[in-house]
Dephospho-CoA kinase (Companilactobacillus tucceti DSM 20183), 197 residues
Amino acid sequence: MSKIYGLTGGIASGKTTVLDILSENGCKIFNADKIAREVVEVGTVGLRQIVSEFGEDILLPDGSLDRKKMSKIVFSDKTQLKRLTDITAPLIRKRILNIIENVHLLDDKTIYIFEIPLLFESNYQPYFDAVISVYVEFDIQLKRLMKRNNLDKKSAEDQINSQMSMAEKKKLADYVIDNSGDLSELQSEIKTLLKNL
Ligand code: ATP
């Protein structure tokens, strides 16, 4: 039975950077954000349900979802957000669980990693062989987020504080990758992890 690990972490903790390194080291990567886009592609049940809930106006002229319009509708309106996630969340979950099940049916030496930013919040941990959290110290996370998203300090702090804390994610994880150092330190953190998996 092949093994599949969940990978999570806070905003700008370095998940994408870690996944790139894991991929370079032969791991096979799945990504929940990609699945979230796939379940509302043209021709899907998901997109049909969104249209029947929000109307044809939510589509672009080419028939695909107008993501900007959708984001505007659900941004800071919890009722509208719930209408959307009531449609998408079960579809995403079904697909994620299906992939995990299929990997477990395989029998190879590949290490499979599934990135799910809200892994703990959505209770995915029981389905994985183990969960890895990417951890970064608050001040460094803040600096990296401000730089990457071109944000002022207050907006970046608000974004970080609206999420489950890094300390909590660290506590809940089976393995922790500390990304508070530079990229070469991250490389060696990941080498150690791969030896332990
Ligand atoms: P999000 O969840 O917001 O998409 P993420 O967890 O995938 O973010 P990354 O995009 O990998 O995080 O990293 C956030 C920023 O920090 C990026 O600009 C990245 O280049 C930078 N970064 C990541 N790790 C390091 C590191 N060890 N040293 C310096 N910069 C880093």
About this structure: Residues 42 and 61 are 12 Å apart (CA to CA). The chain has a mean pLDDT of 96. The pocket of adenosine-5'-triphosphate is lined by residues 9, 11-17, 117, 144, 148, 179, 182-183, 186 (CB under 6 Å).
